[in-house]
């Protein structure tokens, strides 16, 4: 039995993420179950952790910090026990050192870098960036394996992460300039796009995450 925790801190679209993970889990040998939780004790007994996030960086950061012991439990599960972690959209942005949305807000600082507003080179490109874009410069990270040629995924965001270390960028996309579409460091993996809304490619990414064993 493989158990995946979806962290519910009031700032994520947990229902669609849960359904997409369970659908991907049907392809995994054995049984996959998901729990939606903000209980730190639950995170000590799962095989993977997903942190979704929708909305304002500062609001999401405050909501996560308001759950007593939750950040510490995620940190212990991921960095001490090697549980694979996936952040989605703002859940990925929170991995950064800080965000710049309306104010400077500290992030988790698990991937050095900042989250700033999109500034596409063409004024014809609207903000927020919403819709399908192609993943470019896709790394050989296990969670991104087997996506095929020119994989398309679904984005909806006005801000994006800029990692300090370029090797932490696992995939890019172009929206009037290069954007980090996925990041990875050790047991951490994150997507700016929404795999739960990205149809076949998204399902493959979630399946890869369920099978991933960080080295």
Please describe what this structure looks like:
By secondary structure, this protein is α/β, with parallel strands linked by helices. It has one domain (2-211): Class I glutamine amidotransferase (GATase) domain (Rossmann fold), CATH 3.40.50. 23% of the residues lie in helices and 30% in strands. It contains 5 helices and 13 strands. It has helices at residues 14-25, 57-66, 70-80, 90-93, 199-211; strands spanning 2-7, 32-37, 48-51, 85-88, 98-99, 105-106, 113-117, 129-134, 152-157, 159-163, 169-174, 178-185, 188-191. The strands form 3 sheets. Strands 2-1-3-4-13-12-11 form a 7-stranded mixed β-sheet. Strands 6-5-7-10 form a 4-stranded mixed β-sheet, covered by helices on one side. A hairpin with a 2-residue loop joins β12 and β13 (188-191). α1 crosses α5 (199-211). It is globular. The mean pLDDT is 96.
Quick summary of this structure?
The chain has helices spanning 14-25, 57-66, 70-80, 90-93, 199-211; strands spanning 2-7, 32-37, 48-51, 85-88, 98-99, 105-106, 113-117, 129-134, 152-157, 159-163, 169-174, 178-185, 188-191. The chain has 215 residues and is α/β, with parallel strands linked by helices.
């Amino acid at each position: 039995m493989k158990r995946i925790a979806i962290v519910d801190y009031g700032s994520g679209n947990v229902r669609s993420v849960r359904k997409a993970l369970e659908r991907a889990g049907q392809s995994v040998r054995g049984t996959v179950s998901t729990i939606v939780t903000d209980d730190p004790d639950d995170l000590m007994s799962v095989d993977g952790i997903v942190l979704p996030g929708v909305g304002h960086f500062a609001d999401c950061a405050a909501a996560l910090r308001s759950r007593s012991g939750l950040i510490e439990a995620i940190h212990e599960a991921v960095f001490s026990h090697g549980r694979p972690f996936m952040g989605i959209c703002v859940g990925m942005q929170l991995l950064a050192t800080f965000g710049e949305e309306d104010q400077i807000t500290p992030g988790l600082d698990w991937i050095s870098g900042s989250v700033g507003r999109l500034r596409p080179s063409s004024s014809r490109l609207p903000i927020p960036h919403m819709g399908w874009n192609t993943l470019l410069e896709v790394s050989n990270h296990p969670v991104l394996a087997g996506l095929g040629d020119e994989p398309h995924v679904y984005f909806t965001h006005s801000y994006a992460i800029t990692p300090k270390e370029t090797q932490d960028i696992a995939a890019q996309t172009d929206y009037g300039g290069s954007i980090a579409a996925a990041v990875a460091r050790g047991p951490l993996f994150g997507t700016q796009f929404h795999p739960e809304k990205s149809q076949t490619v998204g399902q493959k990414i979630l399946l890869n995450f369920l099978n991933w064993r960080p080295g």
